[in-house]
Amino acid sequence: MKKMKQVIALFLACLLTVAGLAGCGEKVTAEELLDAMKACWEEASAMSAKMEIDGTMSVSVSGISMDIGIQLDGKIRNVREKGSVLDMDLEVSAAGQNQKLAMQVITLEDGDQTKAYLCQDGVWSYSGTEQIAKTDDQFSQLLNDKMEWTLEKDTEEVEDQEAYVLVATVSGTDLLSIVSDMAEISDEQLTQLADGVDFSKLNIDVVWFISKSDKTPLKMELDLGDSLTKLFEGTELDGTKMDLSVEIADFDFEASKEIKVPDEALAAENPTEPATQTPESVPADPGSSATQSAEEDYERAAKEVNNTGTFTVLDTYPGASMSGSVPSGYSCSYASDTMVSLMDDSYETDITYSMQGKGLYSEEDVIETATGWVDYMKEDSASYKDVQMSEVQKETIGGKEVSYISISYVMFGNTKYQEYYVWLEGENAFGIVEIDTTKTDAAAQDVIAPFVESLTIS
After folding, report:
1. pLDDT tens digit string along 109-130?
2. Shared domain check, 207 and 149
3. Number of domains in the chain
4. Which pLDDT band, with edges at 50, 70 and 90, does 422 fall under?
5. In a shared domain, residues 183 and 125
């Protein structure tokens, strides 16, 4: 999985590079149109646009396959010599479960430094980096070497307007060169980042739709064909298939020039203060040891949980928290603001704590998360066998009113697994406890009790 993250991160960097560079073309076959588009960028003191990314990935690793859906809706606003604001709503679906993430990235140019403020589901963090001084002329110079544009013979209708169509293709090799130049990464560092992935197999068609009436951009599309699937060939992710579509539209060259950084984000910039804020409706818990630092140091947070023997997980919409104690014989393997994972010393049982806020989820949604996982396992009969699921059970266990679904299956040959998807209802959120164990003979109440008896939801 670490390999996958490296490849995807590098690919997304290339993708965003294409999106940024494509608006600044100069030396192309449709020179007049590209000059007009370039003038829009050069004359505008601020620009905004909407971005949509839809994709599916079929991952196959060590004989286990999984289908992952990716949907991103975002809006980006750039203010010349000032900074940018990027708002994104990301939804990832896998194994019948959906994970939603709201993000905002604010960058400010401050002398020779770029300040970056990141908000994930209401939690702010900060980082500062040396500013990479690249002008429009340098963008154009890169494009002159790497991309050549063709004007299609026929126009198309976009947003009730007749539009010219410009097409160019950029290879993965050229993209890496562009990323290297822009980010000032050495060839050696770039090779290490790519780590054996042959980016020469990647080809991206960039398509611009330009208004015939005023020569302003209306829409941009990126078409990757089967390049992403070929990208994984010969790696440990060989067999992975990926399909992705990208659209950037609704360009506004008279966007707001103001960039306002929230007080919570400014507080994250101060290294003497915590870089993670507790939601206003959740009282700060001085004993909370699952709060994550700005660097997302999950290992350090897990050590803090093990040192204190307690944890707190948060739900930031509409605002709730769940606290508990680590049972004897268990240790924390992962901790963040929104999730804590425990495992026993014999590696036979692992537990994951999380929350689902009532502002986004009903109990039916909670149940659907479990049933969706079961449906996925039943469809993947090559990896999972004898999949069974109980009806929803509601009982008093460990002194708590809990609901749970029991799930059993066989995996990795003849290894039997027992899962319990457990939830406790609070005023504003559901506390979720996922238990996965190979101890299949124990009664459900005996398995669940140690992991819920210390829980409190506020």
Report:
1. 877 778 888 887 677 888 766 5
2. yes
3. 2
4. very high
5. yes
- C-alpha–C-alpha distance, residues 349 and 145, integer Å: 56
DSSP-derived 3-state class of residue 458: coil
Q: Are 289 and 214 members of one domain? A: no
Residues 114 and 242 in one domain: yes
Are 232 and 7 a contacting pair, CB within 8 Å? Answer: yes
**Per-residue confidence (pLDDT) for residue 172, from 0 to 100:** 73
pLDDT tens readout for residues 218-240: 998 887 777 777 777 776 667 77
Reduced to 3 states, what is the DSSP secondary structure of residue 398? coil
CA distances for 147 relative to 93, 218, 225, 312, angstroms: 35, 20, 18, 51
Q: Is residue 266 part of a domain?
A: no
Residues 6+ apart with CB under 8 A from 59: 4, 65, 66, 67, 68, 237, 240
In a domain, 270, yes or no: no
Which of 217, 252, 287 delimits the end of a domain? Answer: 252
Q: Which two tokens stand for residue 307?
A: 């040192």
Count of beta carbons in the 10 Å neighbourhood of residue 37 = 23
What's the domain range around 333?
Answer: 279-457
pLDDT at 334: 85
Question: What are the structure tokens assigned to 45, written together?
Answer: 């003191």
Same domain, residue pair 109 and 242: yes
279 preceded by a cis bond (ω within 30 of 0): no
